[in-house]
Amino acid sequence: MKESISNSYIFSIVIIFVGIIIVLLIGSLSYSKAFKVKTKVISIIEKHREFNNAAKTEIESFLKTSGYTVTRSNNYGSCPNVNGAEAINTTKNYDYCVYRFDTVKGPYYRVTVFISFDFPVLSSYLRIPMSGETRVIYDV
Fold first, then answer.
1. What global pTM score does this model have?
2. What is the pLDDT of residue 125?
3. What is the SS3 string spanning 21-84?
4. What is the CA radius of gyration of the chain?
5. Nearest-angstrom CA–CA distance, 72 and 62
6. Which residues does residue 115 pair with via DSSP β-bridges, in sequence order?
7. Residues near 45 by Cβ (< 8 Å), separated by ≥ 6?
8. What's the Cα-to-Cα distance from 77 to each of 73, 74, 81, 95, 97, rounded to whole Å?
9. pLDDT digit string, tens, across residues 79-100
10. Using CA of residue 62, residue 96, residue 111, residue 87, what is the dihedral sign?
């Protein structure tokens, strides 16, 4: 009888360990996808030198092919205000925010994408922001 109890404890530990490894793998894949999307959106804004309709169209076409999560209706809130700045993008298709900050040297943009996990109940609670900024754009 002692051996069967010991085996069930070892089996429980193995199951917990495998579950932790799976959660870490899913988290790292979601993080790398969000990092790639953030970097590409920043490079598109820097290429167009501002967030205009051409940049927005190119970002939307990139997001269609990247596999980034499409915003579900009423699952996520709108973009929060950051340092008194409101988001300037008005897209309803994807979950990302673009903010414009004006400085003495010129404007720069902050892009926030969200790491999301597509779990049935927890997806509305697991929304982790990831932000990055463009360089200052001098001649706008």
1. 0.78
2. 66
3. HHHHHHHHHHHHHHHHHHHHHHHHHHHHCCCCHHHHHHHHHHHHHHCCCECCCCCCCCCCCECC
4. 20
5. 18
6. 128
7. 51, 55, 59, 98, 109, 111, 134
8. 10, 7, 12, 9, 11
9. 777 777 777 876 666 778 889 8
10. positive
